[in-house]
Amino acid sequence: MKRDSLVFAISGTFFGLIVGWILGSQVTGRPAPVAAPPAVQAAADDTAPPPLDVQRATALEQQANAQPGDVTVRVELGNLYFDSEHFDLAIPWYEAALALAPSDVNVSTDLAVCYYYTNQPERALAQLDRSLAVDPNHVKTIFNQGIIRAGGMADLAGASESFQRVVALAPGSPEGQQAQRLLDSIADHAGRGIGAGAGAGAGSGG
Questions:
Q1: Which of 20, 32, 40, 64 has its CA 20 to 30 A from that of 190?
Q2: Whole-prediction pTM value?
Q3: What is the pLDDT of residues 44-89, one digit of tens each?
Q4: Which residues contact 139 (CB under 8 A, 6 or more apart)?
């Protein structure tokens, strides 16, 4: 799995905005807005993505075309495009790799992240379900599921459920620590929303 393939880029501030929007919709009765996906970045890394190595991409595509059964080169191409944030270009190569190796949970989850960053949250969640069918306890997949449920679908209850699973499975991992912070953010914003008259249904999950 790519280091950057976690949807880790949702900072506490950004996530807080998502929670606030959803709680606000519960007060007004209007549908909650769907947050736009943030720019992908590594955890705790604000540097810009590397530029696309066009020469390398061309060479790999030629190799892939010459070797239709080679999974590795297709994954490498997907990773190359992913790292430079060309998610739309990464998608067909990850899909091609999965056609050859459908049980590769890491590639499946990387593909789901690409779907999310190309504004396809429902498709992303469906792909994560396929990842979890292979490995039900894949922590990075479950973490991404929580982020996409919140940021892509405005589903705080579902997001909380995912984050709670991450904390239960790997409390000391970076994903577990981040999931706990996000759960705390949901609880904090829900509490303030209720205090302002938001009422029940803030979506603490469980």
A1: 40
A2: 0.78
A3: 345 677 899 999 999 999 999 999 999 999 999 999 999 898 999 9
A4: 166, 169, 170, 173, 175, 176
